[in-house]
Write a structure and sequence with these properties.
The chain has 316 residues and is mainly alpha-helical. Helix content is 52%, strand content 5%. It contains 15 helices and 3 strands.
Length: 316
């Protein structure tokens, strides 16, 4: 150990070392958030709170009281934010203060005890497609072009595997070539850095193969599976399609078919379809990558089907 200290090459200068030692825990907490989407949501919440309270330096968070949190909550409600949006913003601040408590920087979490606004039922918030609509959507892209083949493969991957947009965008060629117990699987990098393996549906597999054959990047194992059409024309370009582009693809095709939806509806559709066909909800939870089964129930749209209403059981 002594030899390492005296002879090892130092990556940090003494000034850089001291600078990192002096980083406030508030900044340290934010830097330690691994998920890009979480960082963005928490950053928005923090900026909003700092604008409301006039906080300009990280250390000022240590003076925040429950009264500040209640006043901010009331301001969010008065701005007509949804109950869930308010809860998410309070959760971001609560995460920060829990970290500060662990570091003994503050004595308690001022968000605790602040009443959260009620949340409406999620039911119907993310519409699920009917089977005939899902089939129409899969057939909508022009299968004679590279873009059309790619779009069909993307829609099939979403509809048959219930992936989130960012999960689809993170897929590499090698993730499409996984095999477990002799069955082809997708390796999915989910929220919080969690990895799950999802059996590859034969219909989606066929469409992905068609796309890769046309795009000619199927041998680039470390490259992105789905790319913009312009990147497919550039040899060796491995830049992935963006979540925003995926949203626009789903939006454009669905709008032409008369039911304007976002990409998340395809996740809801896949989950609902699986549950409709007697899939075990615990298995669907694992399939979707949910930490809590209560979240999975949000995607269970079976109770909203008009044909199952007691109305149609009445007979005179």
């Amino acid at each position: 150990m002594t030899d390492l200290i005296t002879t090892g090459k130092r990556a940090l200068t003494s000034i850089e070392f001291q600078g990192l030692a002096d980083v406030p825990p508030e900044v340290e907490w934010f830097a330690n958030l691994g998920n890009k989407e979480t960082r963005r949501a928490y950053e928005n919440a923090l900026k909003d709170f700092m604008n409301f309270t006039g906080i300009q330096h990280p250390e000022e968070f240590r003076m925040v009281t429950r009264a500040h949190m209640i006043a901010w909550r009331d301001d969010l409600v008065n701005r007509s934010l949804s109950g869930m949006s308010v809860r998410h913003r309070l959760a971001a601040l609560s995460s920060l203060f829990e970290y500060l408590c662990e570091k003994n920087t503050v004595t308690h979490n001022p968000v605790k005890g602040v009443k959260r606004p009620a949340v409406e039922s999620y039911e119907g918030k993310t519409p699920a497609l009917g089977d005939h609509q899902a089939r129409q959507l899969l057939e909508a892209p022009d299968s004679t072009t590279i873009k059309g083949k790619r779009d069909r493969a993307i829609l099939a991957t979403l509809l048959y595997h219930a992936l989130r947009r960012d999960e689809l965008c993170r897929l590499k060629i090698k993730d499409f070539k996984q095999e477990r117990r002799g069955v082809p699987h997708l390796k999915v990098s989910g929220k919080g850095g969690k990895t799950r393996y999802v059996p590859l549906h034969p219909a989606a597999s066929g469409l992905i193969h068609e796309y890769l054959d046309a795009a000619e990047h199927g041998l680039e194992d470390t490259g992105s599976l789905f790319r913009s059409v312009s990147n497919n024309r550039i040899q060796g370009s491995q830049k992935a399609i963006t979540p925003d582009a995926v949203y626009k693809i789903v939006r454009a095709y669905s709008e032409k078919l008369g039911f304007k939806i976002g990409a998340h509806s395809l996740r809801a559709t896949a989950a609902t379809n699986a549950l409709d066909h007697q899939a075990d909800i615990a298995k669907v939870q694992e399939w979707l990558g949910h930490a809590n089964i209560a979240t999975t129930r949000i995607y269970d749209h079976r109770k909203t089907r008009p044909e199952d209403s007691p109305t149609f059981k009445v007979s005179y």
